[in-house]
Amino acid sequence: MGPSAPTASSPAVSARMGRQRRRDTAVELDLRKALHRSGLRYRVAHPVPGLPRRTIDIAFTRRRVAVTALGCFWHGCPEHGTSPKANAEWWAQKIARNRARDDETRCHLASAGWLVVEVWEHDPVGVAVDRVVTALRSRD
Prior knowledge:
The chain has 140 residues and is an alpha+beta fold. 41% of the residues lie in helices and 16% in strands. The protein is built from four helices and four strands. The chain has helices spanning 11-18, 26-37, 88-111, 125-138, and strands spanning 43-47, 55-60, 65-70, 115-120. The chain has a four-stranded mixed sheet, with helices on both faces. Strand 2 (55-60) and strand 3 (65-70) form a beta hairpin. The longest helix is centred in the last third of the chain and has 24 residues, at 88-111. The radius of gyration is 16 Å and the shape is globular. The N and C termini lie far apart (39 Å). The mean pLDDT is 90.
């Protein structure tokens, strides 16, 4: 684990960061609703087998398809990721650790026979649903 978080640059920033959700984010909820409307059923926040304290955002356990919803800021999107000016070094390390953890989880799931589908928050929901459906069909 990295260094402890620095103090927020302002009370407004502190309040905003305190409201950030760890799960049930807008991208997750939109995707889950669309998948459900398509007739698909899944598990939410399913534990990653063999990796304590990690979960799969949307898991199709019988077919071993894991869907991960990634926020552009938190996971360093190459297209839309931003770098805060305040505490820039700490944030760069934080996002790098998030990406490393994502890579480790993805590799762990793949070695356990899971197919991992990553959905970025900027992906249109319809496109994301199509990718998930394609992954599920590949497992039939």
